[in-house]
Design goal:
By secondary structure, this protein is of the alpha/beta class. Helices cover 43% and strands 19% of the residues. A hairpin with a 2-residue loop joins strand 13 and strand 14. The N and C termini lie far apart (58 Å).
Length: 323
């Protein structure tokens, strides 16, 4: 008799983002088992209890339990939401030093268990910490993924849909580059129901290019506005993480804008950054190279350089690449 495959996820970090991810994951019934790990064991145990009490209302209940790093051995996916939070007025890149040290300890502990699955990193600065996770773990680059610009892209599609008065699911547009201040919108390939966004601007007087610029600024600065109002962002990114989780565990071959390692794509190397990629059970199957216009290429290279300059003091190969 063939044993049924159990999809196991371990969550490291049960703060705002981690707990929201666990809640969304349980509601969507994507994983069979979720192990919750946190330095604050009492908090993690409390979350496990609270989530299990709602299990009777879930359509496809997930087996949720408290655990530790030793439990990571037979897990398919590790989702890391642990680390220092972004404070008001602080950029994602300000968090680098604090979180690199935290991540070294987390990844070392996970790998010591015998883990051989996929890492999904959510903690900011996500591109930097995904690169660090790849280096610390020794896993292949395809099996270390960052949440990248999946949320920025979702925000972009939502705001464009609102502007053109169509459902965001019918808007196809990407934000790529750093998940942060140097990210960029790819207007050259953005479309609404198959009609290029720039053509819609040309055809209708009520639409203006300046409005698109305002939309992008709202996308780029959304986290700052949310943090100012409620202290942290967590629902949107939690939903994005669940979407990536589903693409991995269900072997979907879905295209999502995640933080992926560039090895010649977009004429860049030695950097993890947000790009559209095909995601399946093995992690990143391939990176899609958008046909960027000259201005977009320039902005993308600038964004990659911003990330490399942050990485360079910590990773020798990046420092060499910058010379």
């Amino acid at each position: 008799m063939t044993q049924e495959k159990v999809n196991r996820v371990a969550l490291v970090g049960t703060g705002f983002v981690g707990a929201s991810y666990a809640f969304a994951l349980m509601n969507q019934g994507i994983a069979n088992e979720l192990i919750m790990i946190d330095l604050n064991e009492e908090k993690a145990m409390g979350d496990v209890m609270d989530l299990n009490h709602g299990k009777v209302f879930a359509t496809n209940p997930t087996n949720i339990r408290f655990g530790n790093y030793e439990d990571c051995k037979n897990v398919d996916l590790i989702v890391i939401c642990a680390g220092a939070n972004q404070k008001p007025g602080e950029t994602r890149l300000d968090l680098v030093q604090k979180n690199l040290a935290i991540f070294k300890e987390i990844v070392d502990n996970v790998m010591a268990s015998g883990f051989n699955g996929i890492f999904l990193v959510a903690t900011n600065p996500v591109d930097i910490l995904t690169y660090a996770t790849w280096k610390f773990s020794g896993l292949s680059k395809e099996r270390v993924i960052g949440s990248g610009t999946i949320l920025d892209t979702a925000r972009f599609r939502f705001l464009l849909g609102d502007y053109f008065k169509v459902a965001p699911t019918n808007v196809h547009a990407y934000i790529i580059g750093e998940h942060g201040d140097s990210e960029l919108p790819v207007y050259s390939s953005a479309d609404v129901g198959g009609i290029p966004v720039m053509k819609l601007i040309e055809r209708h007087e009520k639409y203006k290019k300046e409005d698109l610029d305002d939309i992008f600024v709202n996308v780029r600065d959304a986290a700052y506005h949310i943090i100012q109002r409620k202290g942290a962002t967590y629902y949107g990114i939690a939903m994005g993480l669940v979407r990536i989780t589903k693409a991995i565990l269900h072997n979907e071959n879905s295209i999502l804008t995640v933080s992926a390692h560039l090895d010649g794509q977009y004429e860049e190397n030695h950097v993890y950054t947000g790009v559209p990629a095909v995601i399946n059970r093995n992690g990143i199957r391939e990176i899609l190279e958008l046909d960027l216009d000259e201005e977009e290429k320039k902005k993308f290279h600038h964004s990659a350089r911003v990330l490399k300059e942050i990485l360079a003091p910590h990773f020798e190969e990046v420092a060499k690449d910058l010379k």
